């Protein structure tokens, strides 16, 4: 923490306001899911599909080439967001075009998730269940693939009614084959616009001006920009990769930075504190 005193003040203010004034806004890949397990990288929503039997070897090679070209740009501290933006759009657009060519069948997605190494962070059960128990909305903004994301949390048994997902959804034809992706591309730097476009969802949340934000990239910091009349926001950042190079920029931007922490322990401790004196709804 750059400023522990400030974190303490925000938490006290949020706790005093009560859990019915709180909403949680979170990224998904590498935030709610693990970055690595036993030294091996865990897959993102895109990786789950990319590494699956539904994708030809040739397509896998092309997707890997895209990753090797664009991922270093995404995590390069020396480049500005303005500079990265068109390149990230280029990356996701090309990747989605390749996936559409694969004629992916909708009814095989559950199997693909089941066979993957996708893992939610340790302590996820308490996190999701506690939010549900206290009727605290969890909004997940993801540049990943919504269909896969939902399947991951469904299979983990935590896709509760208080969870809303904003992501890139697949569009299937009448035979259940992928033909396109729906709507505007949501990527790492325009989630904020996703937030603003979905102000309908935020309307019902107007009585919840206290935000707990979870992310793993500096692009995630704008996810709460659609929240009107915000009173408090506590930003928790998972720093998973290139820790030393990025530590300072994360400390400057997030209130709490979790370095190489594969658990939900800190968010859970905060949630337990924030809901301590609030009676749960029957």
From TrEMBL:
Alphabetically ordered keywords of this record: Cytoplasm, Hydrolase, Magnesium, Metal-binding, Nucleotide metabolism, Nucleotide-binding
UniProt keyword annotation of Magnesium present: yes
Pfam families: UMPH-1
Biological process (GO), any one: nucleotide metabolic process
Catalytic activity: a ribonucleoside 5'-phosphate + H2O = a ribonucleoside + phosphate; CMP + H2O = cytidine + phosphate; N(7)-methyl-GMP + H2O = N(7)-methylguanosine + phosphate
Intracellular or extracellular location(s): Cytoplasm
Single GO term (MF): magnesium ion binding
EC identifiers of the protein: 3.1.3.5
GO cellular component, one term: cytoplasm
CDD domains according to UniProt: HAD_5NT
Highest rank taxon of the organism: Eukaryota
Stated name of the protein: 5'-nucleotidase
Species: Myripristis murdjan (pinecone soldierfish)
